[in-house]
Amino acid sequence: MPGGPVPTKSTPSGRTIRVLAALAAAATVGALTAALPASAETGRGDRDDDHRGHGHKPRTVDVQLLSFNDLHGHLEPPSGSSGTLTERQPDGTTKQVTAGGVEYLASSLRTARKGKPYSVTTAAGDLIGGSPLLSGLFHDEPTIEALNKLDLDVAGVGNHEFDEGTKELQRIQNGGCHPTAGCFEPGRKFKGADFPYLAANVTVEKTKRPVLAPYWVWKEKGVKVGFIGITLEGTPDIVSADGIKGLKFHDEVETVNKYAKVLERQGVKSIVAVIHEGGYPASTSYNYDCDSPGAGDGISGPIVDIAKGISPQVDALVTGHTHQPYACSIPDPSGKPRTVTSASSFGRLYTETTLTYDRRTNDIVRTSVKSANHVVRRDQPRAADMTELIGRWNKLAAPIASRPVGFIAGDIPGRGATTLESPLGDLISDAQLAQARTLDPKAVVALMNPGGIRADLVHKAVGTEGDGVVTYGEGFTVQPFGNTVNLVDLTGAQLVTALQQQVSGPNTAAPKILQVSDGLTYTLDMTKAGADRVVTGSIRLNGQPLDPAATYRVVLNNFLTGGGDGFTELAKGKNPLVGGDDLKALTDYLGANSSAAAPLVPPKADRITVIR
Question: Residue ranges of the Calcineurin-like phosphoesterase domain (predicted)?
């Protein structure tokens, strides 16, 4: 944890001021109910002209709020479906447009800021974690370096910021060489994030203090806007239990409302909540009007209830997590529309919101708020400093990244699959079962969480490797978490319960369909509700019905053995055995089952029959 109060004056760097002040706020916060010191208030250059009065200034000023979310370390332009967006045309048709890449994101943001003297940039979590090899191989230091160059002012944490644990997240904020990997470049020490990461609803159980700063205040020539950053309360359900041991995650609405009052007591009446939780618009087109026919009518999901519960003191919500694009107006508890935005993922979009600030009331004129998502197009000039950054890190990664590990005969969709069972999910499950059988020949089935599959395997060459060649870097992008492939004993009854948990309990509204290895088949009837969606009589393992009383040796990664994604039944497995790395399982399988002359044919994804 940071130390005592940190001075916010007499420093040459306004960006350093922002981080130090935010860390000071985190250090001095007691319980969630404690008031925070005014030292948390600072801004670009720490310029505050309140003492001069505003008689000679116009009453209102437009503040440009730029935002994005869920970058996941995608510094290079993402490929496959991860690098496209659906764009709605004037005639109602849609087309796909390519987008993303930090070189273009930097150019887009810098162009947008021109002529905007009051501009602040924020991001709603998952900026790191689940990253491609270029960033993930170096524990996401390249992404933080890029975000510093982007002039990101403040960010909220997401669940993936906790992938490598609390101490690593604090290192990401404060800097320093990695505790085991060390410094990656001679003569260079990782400096950490120039921007404060906010985690208002994440506290240390023993001390009840926030693990990072809960809020931050941007100030520019007398204009003040407060930012409260939170992640979803359900983070413990979707990250490795070891990484968040000793932390408590609090309710989103209660936390934001509490700190909104804290900020208002400090004279900050303009407030933005940066929330790593999101919704699902009725259309995936980034320019879909989700306020048709009425405010917020075109969006559903957790963010709707959160937005309706957050105090009217909060003027705008910047959200993330669901990787969806939207700029909606969801009514606040008083029934007044309030902007709620999300910029998809992987740096493909950025959101521009105009907040009209009234100098007399120090508040936002909500009726004047305008917001829209903009494509990070690739037909614009690339930012030279980002090109240099990518080239520098690529040079370090190249010996590892470019190594061929297998050959495929066509695209193998994973993250971009439009079906509940994906061809890449089948491939990964088969690979994990094969690796597990080298440790225990009794292993009979492997289950893979869909969220652990981060990309597609694309047949077309991304670099110079040639079409159909799968490189280590591409494999890493698919499975970047470094999970282990474990074995446990589960009864047939437990396996049925686990399959039912895909579509019930916390997964009722947004099912999480486990990917299954060859030999396990069953039917999902999505016309039914909850656990009944799993047709239990259809479940077969190698052609035979499951015996509820029999014990089966099951292969799971460590995320699932910890009960992740709401699969509490899988956490009850007996006789655990920790196996090898999940990425190695995939690369070994590709190496053993494909060649240039006989590339691997994409799996058919026909193990789960879905009725709709």
Answer: 68-325
The answer to whether the CB of 440 falls within 8 A of the CB of 577 is yes
Q: Considering only CA atoms, which of 279, 277, 281 is closest in space to residue 88?
A: 281
Strand partners, 247: 204
Query: Which helix (H) or strand (E) element contains residue 496?
Result: helix 492-501
Q: In one letter, which amino acid is 229?
A: G
Is residue 334 domain-shared with residue 409, that is, in the same domain? no
pLDDT in tens, 206-250: 999 999 999 999 999 999 999 999 999 999 988 888 889 999 999
The residues with which 38 forms a beta bridge, in sequence order, are: none
- Cis amide bond preceding 293, omega within 30: yes
- Domain assignment present for residue 375? The answer is yes
Put the strands of the sheet holding 520-525 in their side by side order. Answer: 544-545, 534-541, 520-525, 608-611
> pTM for this structure?
0.80
Last residue of a domain, one of 326, 353, 384: 384
Tens of pLDDT, residues 152-188: 999 999 999 999 999 999 999 999 999 999 999 988 9
CATH assignment at residue 588: 3.90.780.10
Residues 422 and 339 in one domain: no
Number of domains in the chain: 2
Mean pLDDT of 483-497: 95
Helices of type H across 138-277: 141-149, 166-174, 252-265
Q: Which DSSP state fits 420?
A: S
